[in-house]
Amino acid sequence: MKPEYPDLHTLYLDSLRQVYTGFEYQNSPRGQDEREIIGYTARLTNPARRYCLARSRRQNIIFNYAEALWYLSGKNDLDFIRTYAPSMSRYSPDGLSLPGTGYGPKLLRHVGDETAIERIVNILREDDPASKRAVLQIFDDSEDIYRRNIDVSCTLALQLLRREDRLHMVAFMRANDAYMGLLNDTFSFTFIQEFLASMLGLTPGVYIHNVGSASMNPAICGSSSTIEVLSSTGSRLGKVPAEAPAGALAVPASAGLASCSVMDLLRPVAIGPSQLIGN
Asked: Any idea where the Thymidylate synthase/dCMP hydroxymethylase domain is (predicted)?
């Protein structure tokens, strides 16, 4: 049975403990030292509880919402996302886009006359509700996986499973940084899970996070702030604005998502630069 957690807070802190104290290997891929566990998996029973409350790990909640909406907008442009996380600029191969990290074009790519997301919704709504084929593929073999490429998709695929009145999601990742990536990715993927569940009129089920290589930089592992994270609690979340300002990122109607009654869900995540929390 997979380790089971009631919220992302406990899942995240336990994953840090596992990699920090129970690592299997010490490697230096692309010259970067790391501690690593192979074959990490965890089960989140309430995907809506996607927040970390540790005092020393101030979750950039504004970035998390912005990234999820960035994905659902079908974009991978650097200009938008670096407003919320300037450090992401270093991973852009051309200074304009993030073709590996920006999953939007892959989630909304056209497959025949449907987007990838539309196809998943149509299958689970009408074609075969119990299907095991509802997979959103992200990584593909056209990506340059040689060391020279600084931006390769970490996520392989997201599988959606409709069982009774619940929509479950299983994420498959080739690699995930336990300190930074796991927190952000789990937030975005459970947000997408909730979004699709709303489109289908279902309740979000469990979220399962599978990672081939879960790792952590020893420099972060050895810092006092990380040690404190492993034992501290207490909320440090920023305040999310109740209303979306003008010019906020929107999910395009052309993506086939406009039919979903999720405006209340989207309203707090469409935010502007003035609400930025330090990354």
From this structure: 12-214
Query: Which tokens sit at 194?
Result: 């909730």
Number of H helices, E strands in the chain: 9, 9
Residue 81: name the closest of 223, 212, 253, 249 by CA: 249
pTM assigned to the model: 0.82
**Torsional class of 243: left (φ above 0), alpha (ψ -120 to 50), beta (otherwise):** beta
Dig out the tokens for 156 from the structure. Answer: 């392989």
**Per-domain residue ranges of the chain:** 35-51+60-179+187-214
Under DSSP, is residue 12 helix (H, G, I), strand (E, B) or coil?
A: helix
Cα torsion through 61, 182, 32, 228, rounded to 10 = 70
Q: Regarding beta strands 166-177 and 155-163, do their DSSP bridges make them parallel or antiparallel, or are they unpaired?
A: antiparallel
Q: Does domain 35-51+60-179+187-214 have CATH number 3.40.50.2020?
A: no
Q: What is the pLDDT along the chain (279 residues), one digit of tens a residue?
A: 678 999 999 999 999 989 988 999 998 887 788 999 999 999 999 999 999 988 778 889 999 999 999 999 999 999 999 999 999 999 999 999 999 999 999 999 999 999 999 999 999 999 999 999 999 999 999 999 999 999 999 999 999 999 999 999 999 999 999 998 999 999 999 999 999 999 999 999 999 999 999 999 877 755 555 655 555 555 444 443 344 333 344 444 434 333 332 223 233 333 333 322 233
Rounded CA-CA distance 176/273 in Å is 27
Asked if residue 279 lies in contact with residue 87, where contact means CB atoms within 8 angstroms, the answer is: yes
3-state secondary structure labels for all residues of 162-228: EECCEEEEEEEEEEEECCCHHHHHHHHHHHHHHHHHHHHCCEEEEEEEEEEEEEECHHHHCCHHHHH
Cα–Cα dist 28/229, whole Å: 24
